[in-house]
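Quick bug: Cation acetate symporter output formatted oddly.
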Amino acid sequence: MDMTVIVLFLLIVFLTLVITYYAAKQTKTTGDFYTAGGGLTGWQNGIAIAGDYLSAASFLGIAGAIALNGFDGFFYSIGFLIAYLVVLFLVAEPLRNLGKYTLADMINSRFDSKKVRGVAALSTITIVIFYMIAQLVGAGALIQLLFKIDYWIAVLIVGVMMTIYVLFGGMIATSWVQIVKAVLLMAGMIIISFLVLLKYNFNIGTMFSEVKTATSHGADYLKPGLQYTNPLGTISLMIALVLGTSGLPHILMRFFTVKDAKTARSSVVTATWTIGIFYILTLFLGFGAAAFVGDSKIIAANPGGNMAAPLLAEALGGNILFAFISAVAFATILAVVAGLVLSGASAFAHDLYGQIIKKGKASDRQQMLAARYAALAVSIFSIILALFAQTLNVAFLVSLAFCIAASANLPVILYTVYWKRFNTTGAVTAVLSGLISALVLVSISPSVFSPVEGAALFVGNPIFPFENPAIISVPLGFLGGYIGTILSKEVDPVRYAEVNVKASTGYREV
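Here's what came back:
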C-alpha cells in the first residue's frame, strides 16, 4: 500500500472522529440525535444532502459506466439529477411541514394509525437494509482493491466507523461528516475535470471529437444503445432512478434537520446545484478515463469499471492525486452508510418502539437509549449480512432499494398531501402493494436468474424480462393506494383540510 494513501486515509479518519467528538457534546436530546435539533442552515443541509446522495456508486460507478459504455453510462447521471427536481417541486416542502423525525411521522400527521406507521417503518427498514448491504459490499470490494486488505477487514473498518459516528454523534456528526465529504468530493471532481480539459486546451468540441476514436466503439460511443438494448428496460430503470430518490428514507430524513419549509427549499436548491455540477463533471471523468486510461486497463482493474476515476487520477496527477481520490472514495462510503444507519435506527426506535410499543409515552431518555441500541443493532446486522453477501450483485441491491422507494413510499407521500379522498386503508395498501410487487418481480428477474452460470444469483431463465421492475411496480403502488381507498368508506375532509394547510404553510397549530 502506498504511504501517501495511508496518510490521507488516516487524516480522513482523524478528521471525522474529531467531528464526532464535538458533535457528541451537543447531542443531548432525541431531536438532536434524529435531526440535529433542526438547527442546520439551508446551505449546510444542502451540502449535507449532496454528501448523503452522492454515493460511491455515483462517484466510481458512473465514471466507469461512461468510460466503458459512453452515452448509456450517462443515463445514470441524467436520472439522478432529474430525480432532485421531483424532490424539490413535490416532496421537500410538505414533508418538512408535516413530519418530525421519520416518513411515518409525516403520513401519520393525517391518519394517526399504528397500521400505517408499522407498514411505513417496514418499508423504510427494507430499503435501508438492501441499500446498506449494497454500500457495505461495494465498500468492502473497493477498499480491498485500493488498500490491498482482506474483504472482511474492509467491511469491519467501514462498519465500525459508521457505528461510532451515529452512536455518539447522531445526526449532528453524520451531517458534518457528509458536509466534509461533499466538499472533498467536489474538489476531487473539479481537479480531475480541469486536468482532462487541459489536455484538450479547454475545447469541449475537441474532446467530443477525439473521444470517438479513443475507444473500440468508434462513433457509436456517443450514441445510445451500447449497454441498454431494450427500450422498455431502459425506461423502467429511469423510472426507478427519477422517482426512487423521493422515497429514500435517508434522503427524506434530511429535510427534518432544518427549522422551516423555507430553509428546506433553500437546502434543496443548494443540493440540486451541487449534485447537478457533480453529474455534469462525471462526463469529463468518463471521457477522460476512456481516452487516457483505456477500457482494457479499466476492465483489468475491475470488470464493472469502478476503478476508472482513481486510475484516471493516477494517469493525470500521479500517486498524490490517486491517493487523494482514494481517500475521497473512502470518505464517500463512510458518509452514506452513516446516513443509512441513522434512518434505519429511527424507524426502529421512534416508529416501532416509541410510537407503537410505548404508544408515544417513552421519555426522552428512553427514546435516546432506544435510538442508540437500534443504531448498534442495525450496524451489527448490516455488517454480518455484508460479510456473507460478498458475491451478491451490488447493482441489483441498489436498483431494488430505489425501486421499493419509488413503488412503496412515493405513492403514499403524494396521496397523503394531494388527494382529499385518500384514507388509512389506501395508505396501507399503497405501501404493501408497492413493496411486495417490487420484491416479487425482482426475485424472478434477470438480476436473480440467468442461463449463464455466474451472471446472476441462480442459473435459470428469468420469468420477468427487466432487471428493474419499476415500470410495473410503481403503477401498482399507486393503483393499490387508489383501490384500497375507494373500497373503504372512511372519509375525513376536515383532517385533509388541516393537513393541506400545514403542508402548504408549515403552520402547525391548526
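Actually, after a second look the formatting is fine. The beta strands are 449-450, 458-459. Closing.
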